[in-house]
Design brief:
With 307 residues, the chain is of the alpha/beta class. Helix content is 33%, strand content 27%. A 9-stranded mixed sheet has the order 14-13-12-11-7-10-9-8-15. A 6-stranded parallel sheet has the order 3-2-1-4-5-6, sandwiched between helices. Bound molecules: NADP nicotinamide-adenine-dinucleotide phosphate.
């Protein structure tokens, strides 16, 4: 199937373009971006021009930041195209619900992709936790914003999510592997005084049997930490390296896996399956928790952030 990529920036170049190139299902047939192009691929700066020029391209994958995403997705859906959304699927929950209704109306596939859910050991973690009684659950997601988001002003603006941009990846894994629902009870958001979005967050959640705490921080230099630890009455599970590694009671499970390898190829395999079946996958659970944190969170101002 032919596919068009919209927003040729960091994640499109790092992951989408190589994953599409390696996929047996997809051919990159066009790009839409004001500044970016992919060698040998028809390039447009306006989505409307691409949609008009290429009625044969039935699928559009959106890699722009969250705020501009709704208008582009709605335009593609109204033009009868299937749409894949980078995470988070939008800037607000309501616009995501509107998009889903629009996709149903136009009978097209809409896929809210969560790349971290495709990390190698997430399914094994989910299977192990399915019949365990949880007593404590902690998420530690600490990384260096300057390393992963160089020069990206949008992440500090309203709708950019700040540290919840990576934090929502943790939440996408949590909402996939936990058998019981959780809901936020308290949060602290540390917001640089020259920014609109937090650089750090501490979250506490209610769970039927366990204490659940999460820490997201964008100020970690050196080694990066993307870890989930689940203590249960039958042992302790650790998901490390963003879900690429799994330990049960300290013993490594499965093969060594590169932290990111495989996530995006699996997303594009999922997309092919959804389009073939005419299905919608629009799970907004990770985004609900982020919205709750912005609703309930106590804000504390911290020192200004400069690149
Ligand atoms: P990015 O490089 O800053 O932006 C992607 C592209 O979107 C830009 O190159 C730009 O292309 C276009 N764009 C930016 N602002 C726009 C606007 N206001 N209107 C229309 N187009 C705009 O961002 P990114 O890191 O690739 O992230 C994009 C999405 O992928 C985000 O939702 C992010 O959470 C997600 N993601 C990022 C990473 C990562 O490691 N960076 C990992 C996983 C997921 P043109 O200027 O050429 O139009």
């Amino acid at each position: 199937m032919q596919i068009a990529l919209v927003g040729i920036g960091k994640i499109a170049v790092d992951q989408h373009v190589p994953s599409i190139a390696a996929s047996p299902d997809w051919e990159l047939a066009a790009t839409v971006s004001r500044h970016g192009t992919v060698e040998g691929v028809a390039a447009y700066t306006q989505l409307s021009e691409m949609l008009d020029a290429h009625p044969e391209i039935r699928v559009v994958s959106l890699c722009v930041p969250p705020v501009p995403r709704f208008a582009l997705a709605a335009e593609a859906i109204r033009a009868g195209r299937h749409v894949m959304l980078e995470k988070p699927p939008g800037a607000t929950l309501s616009e995501c619900h509107t998009l889903e209704a629009l996709a149903r109306q136009h009978r097209v596939t809409l896929y809210a992709s969560w790349h971290s859910r495709e990390a190698a050991m997430v399914p094994a973690a989910k299977a192990w936790l399915a019949d365990k009684k949880l007593t404590r659950f902690t998420v530690t997601w600490k990384e260096d914003v300057r390393r992963w988001h160089p020069g990206q002003a949008w992440i500090w603006q309203p709708g950019g999510l700040g540290v919840f941009d990576p934090g929502i990846n943790a939440l996408s894994i949590v909402t996939e592997i936990l058998p019981d629902p959780i809901h936020l009870t308290a949060a602290t958001l540390e917001v640089p005084e020259n920014c609109q979005a937090p650089i750090g967050a501490q979250l506490a959640f209610a769970h039927p049997t366990a204490q659940v705490d999460m820490v997201f921080d964008w100020r970690q230099t050196g080694d990066q930490t993307w870890e989930i630890e689940a203590e249960t009455t039958q042992g302790t599970l650790k998901l490390l390296d963003g879900g690429a590694r799994l330990q049960i009671d300290g013993s490594e499970q499965g093969e060594d896996a590169d932290a990111l390898k495989g996530e995006y190829p699996r997303l594009y395999a999922n997309l092919a399956r959804l389009v073939a079946r005419g299905e919608i996958d629009m799970d907004l659970a990770p985004m609900r928790h982020v919205a709750d944190a912005f609703t309930l969170g106590h804000r504390s101002l911290t020192e200004p952030f400069h690149e």
